[in-house]
Amino acid sequence: MASENRIGNGVRGQAIVEFAAMLVMMTVILAAMLFFLGTFTNYGARLIHLVAWEPNPASYDEMSAYSRGK
């Protein structure tokens, strides 16, 4: 019975370590989601246009003007 309550066997701290690891992972995921939300809120149309743009000579001037914000 006495050996079950000892900290030296490494069993008691496992739940705290797992909780801390999950807390850190959830915080990182939340920060990334907030970053992407802010980015797409401010620059959503421009980012979608940049991703969907196909570089061909006819639309290069249009894309360069759009990327400069004109």
Description:
- The structure is a single chain.
- By secondary structure, this protein is an all-alpha fold.
- It has helices spanning 14-52, 60-67.
- Helices cover 67% and strands 0% of the residues.
- The model has no long low-confidence stretch (mean pLDDT 78).
Topology diagram in text:
Elements: H1 14-52, H2 60-67
Tell me the Rg in angstroms: 25 Å
- The percent range for strand residues is under 5%
Mean pLDDT: 78
Tally of DSSP β-strands: 0
Give helix and strand order, one letter per element, not per position: HH
Distance between the termini: 76 Å
Low-confidence stretches: none
* Fraction of residues in H or I helices: 55-70%
| Number of DSSP helical runs | 2
Short description:
With 70 residues, the chain is an all-alpha fold.
Q: What keyword list fits this structure?
A:
70 residues, mainly alpha, 2 helices
